[in-house]
Design the sequence.
């Protein structure tokens, strides 16, 4: 075959065709990319205009918004990717096509939604983000944030806050909703919310967010929920003048393995003991080692002296011989304590000469003398009896007194109605210390800040709990029973059947709370 000059072979022609196709595709691809970029720019600009000029912001109903309940979809009960409808207050999952939030927006024409995790606002079904500064109050109610400066002036704050419905309240003096029978939890949570070091620590999430826990550990949920509850109780910009502890109680039921429940009333002292020890362990503390905010606030030290009671039928010579044995010698053990258990004298069994059964009364130091290191008390076991005396060696910044009113016998649970007379200010616990232990404490004067009272029958579910709290800013006392909040005179507090009391060491003994006890 004869080839003409300048002509191409079949292979060269095929290569040229391939090159033209590739270059054509590249040109088309580059033009498509340019078109996409242009469309994206126009689309983002249009979405930006809609984001800042959403026409549905006036449909938001703040009076129906309640972020206290568990963040679950009201249809699928899922906690993943949950949105709150800001028109009706219900929770729905997702915002994509055919999701529960999307369907709700089409059926009910509710268009404004808040992602409860990212705290971003969206308009459905158009599915664009809403950016508007007028919505910042909703974000603050969902997740209140306190700065160090705000926390430092909480105890001096006397200004009333106004809720969205027009009612006024004092931050910190807020009622807790009684879902069914959780009043025993409410009084403990409200009392602990006024313990300043504990409150200040949990108001800032970064104080405990970095604590490492074992994989799959659910106990750390307790600290998270407690911090969230404290921030809601002290939030000066709440939409309502009360708070529901639903998420906190769910964590209590889960972490206690249903020992404490919402639907069944329990003893508030048992809950207080479990709650403080659980918080201490969640924050990295242990029984003997590890210092946390809980132990540094409530933990004191005492010495317990124990000796067995000699048999009564022994003669004097035999008693001397028996006392030299190892088992009858007095032993000493130094133990920490979170609260002091005070025993009440037994009430009278019969009425007096006026045919009236007068309720007995006893001064506070009449039950505190148990811890002076001199008074002995007999504790009976199934084998023998042991005499014990208690000597306090270290007083914590906050003292919890547990006044033991309930006595469980084989047949029934009895309640001691004895009234304890106590002052609300200037109680000197140094009278219980030995001279050498008292020399270690610069000052031992305490003031009452919380008083938990049990009213009614001792059986579970038949009695009620209430708490009296001191608002340090105004110096006034308030009585809280679930959602009911009323002011009360200090003289009326001592007339009640006190069950748990929290005393705070006067601040001047800490030199402005700078000294570490």
Sequence:
């Amino acid at each position: 075959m004869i080839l003409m000059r300048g002509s191409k072979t079949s292979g060269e022609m095929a290569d040229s065709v391939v090159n033209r196709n590739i270059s054509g595709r590249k040109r088309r691809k580059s033009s498509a990319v340019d078109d996409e970029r242009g469309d994206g720019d126009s689309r983002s600009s249009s979405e930006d205009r809609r984001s800042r000029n959403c026409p549905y912001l006036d449909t938001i109903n703040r009076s129906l918004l309640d972020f206290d309940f568990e963040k679950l979809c009201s249809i699928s009960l899922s906690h993943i990717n949950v949105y709150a409808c800001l028109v009706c207050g219900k929770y729905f999952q997702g915002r994509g096509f055919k999701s529960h939030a999307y369907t709700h927006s089409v059926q009910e024409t509710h268009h404004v939604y808040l992602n409860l995790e990212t705290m971003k606002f969206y308009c459905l079904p158009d599915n664009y983000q809403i950016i508007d500064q007028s919505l910042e109050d909703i974000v603050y109610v969902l997740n209140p944030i306190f700065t160090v400066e705000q926390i430092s002036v909480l105890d001096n704050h006397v200004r009333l806050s106004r809720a969205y419905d027009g009612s006024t309240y004092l931050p910190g003096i807020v009622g807790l909703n009684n879902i069914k029978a959780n009043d025993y939890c409410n009084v403990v949570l409200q009392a602990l919310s006024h313990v300043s070091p504990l409150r200040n620590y949990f108001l800032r999430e970064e104080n405990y967010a970095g604590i490492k826990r074992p994989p799959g550990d659910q106990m750390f949920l307790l600290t998270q929920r407690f911090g969230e509850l404290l921030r809601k109780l002290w939030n000066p910009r709440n939409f309502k003048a009360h708070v529901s502890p639903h998420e906190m109680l769910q964590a209590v039921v889960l972490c206690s393995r249903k020992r404490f429940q919402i639907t069944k009333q329990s003893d508030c002292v048992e809950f207080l003991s479990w709650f403080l020890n659980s918080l201490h362990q969640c924050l990295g503390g242990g029984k003997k080692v590890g210092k946390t905010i809980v132990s540094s606030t409530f933990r004191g030290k005492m010495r317990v002296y124990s000796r067995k009671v000699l048999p009564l039928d022994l003669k004097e010579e035999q008693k001397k011989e028996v006392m030299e044995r190892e088992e009858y010698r007095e032993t000493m053990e130094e133990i920490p304590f979170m609260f002091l258990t005070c025993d009440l004298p037994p009430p009278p069994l019969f009425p007096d000469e006026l045919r009236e059964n007068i309720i007995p009364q006893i001064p506070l130091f009449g039950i505190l003398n148990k811890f002076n290191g001199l008074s002995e008390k007999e504790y009976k076991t199934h084998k023998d009896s042991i005499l014990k005396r208690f000597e306090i060696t270290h007083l914590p910044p906050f003292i919890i007194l547990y006044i033991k009113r309930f006595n469980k016998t084989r047949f029934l649970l009895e309640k001691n109605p004895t009234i304890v007379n106590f002052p609300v200010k200037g109680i000197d616990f140094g009278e219980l210390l030995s001279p050498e232990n008292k020399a270690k404490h610069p000052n031992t004067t305490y003031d009452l800040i919380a008083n938990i009272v049990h009213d009614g029958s001792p059986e579970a579910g038949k009695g009620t709990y209430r708490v009296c709290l001191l608002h340090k800013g105004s110096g006034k006392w308030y009585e809280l029973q679930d959602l009911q909040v009323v002011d009360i005179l200090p003289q009326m507090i001592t007339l009640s059947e006190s069950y748990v009391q929290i005393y705070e060491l006067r601040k001047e003994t800490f030199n402005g709370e700078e000294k570490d006890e």
In short: The radius of gyration is 33 Å. The longest helix spans residues 10-52. The longest strand covers residues 445-456. Confidence is low (pLDDT under 50) at residues 1-43, 509-517.
